[in-house]
Amino acid sequence: MNSRQRVTAALNHQQPDRVPVDLGGAVVTGIHASALHKLRKALGLEPHPVKVYEPMMMLGIVDLDVVQAVGGDVVGLNAPGTLLGYKSENWKDWTLPDGTPVLMGGGFEYTTDAQGTTFAYPQGDRSARPSATMPAGGLYFDNLVRQDDLTDHDFDARTDYADQYAMFTDEDCAYYERTSRSLYEDTDYAVFGNFFLGGVGDIFHIPGPWLKNPKGIRDPEEWIMAPLLHPDYVKDFFEIQTEITLKNLELYRQAVGDRLTAIAVSGTDFGAQDNLLLAPDCYREFYKPYHKQFNDWVHENTSWKVFFHSCGAVAELMDDFIEAGVDVINPVQVSARGMQAKTLKETYGNRIAFWGGGVDPQKTLPFGTPDEVARETKQNVKTLSQGGGFVCAAVHNIQGPTPVENILAFFNSINS
Length: 416
Prior knowledge:
This protein has 14 helices and 15 strands. The protein is α/β, with parallel strands linked by helices.
């Protein structure tokens, strides 16, 4: 089997020749630029500054030589732009707070205050209010909440979120066609579509870090309460997003055809470490109908598998995800309540595939020993890979300070 065949077999719940592996195919299976810089060196690969394609999470582009070296099977079709609203092109030098040299897109604009706090600007426009901030010595950019006083606000979603999402341009479509063709024809890796525009209510998107003048509810804490306080407003917003997303799915299909193995439809998080972030009935009323529309469209019009990302303790929603047409769940946060690998595999393994679940990037991977990393990885792989239905990746992105010895132990243990 080649990599593309291996991933396809696994997602079809067939036993592949070995467990397929992903590093950086998705923006939720990636690696911090600092950790990637160290990994390249440890692998003996040609040194060069890592290109940061997603500045909020400081994710580095995982080049093909790294994919090959770690036994990877997936390459990502990334969006042409970033969450800060500039494109990943015209690269320029920057240095991370830990001293790691990186390359940022030419539209990345920032200022640093006397305390060493860095502020990034939407669409590279310093005349706008900064939309993200990184503390001195930090690892990531956090959203800045830019919400006006809503005391006397007229809650009209079609006005407030009119510019939240947009149709793909001809330039976007040409990029997707050109890049997907190159990834598909020049490699035998599975091509993963980082679409994610079906993530209604994505708490990472609510502040609108790419917008210069966001309107309406932008505070994540207020957004979580919005379905109860402003139900029609929330549904109107989701209707706007759905209208645009369905049109963009068609443009995406025209651009990439059957070259994708899977598409990330949603990245909205519904779980915390020990519980859901919303009641199951709230998910069923406000989110599930839109998810089903997107997933049904994908299944009716393409050969792609539908990939959903939701962190946390989401076992209570697994049946709903499956009913909504989700084929693949990520990140499989096996450390969260009710998310033990054995329970998930036995209960849902014949109805949904697992992508992630390899090792805990919050505890074991950054703070354990290489032996502890290897032991946890082998156990999770043994449990989740039986009968196919599993692509191994870390449980979410590999964090910046992670010891490179542990990263190597993880990848060396998957198919050992």
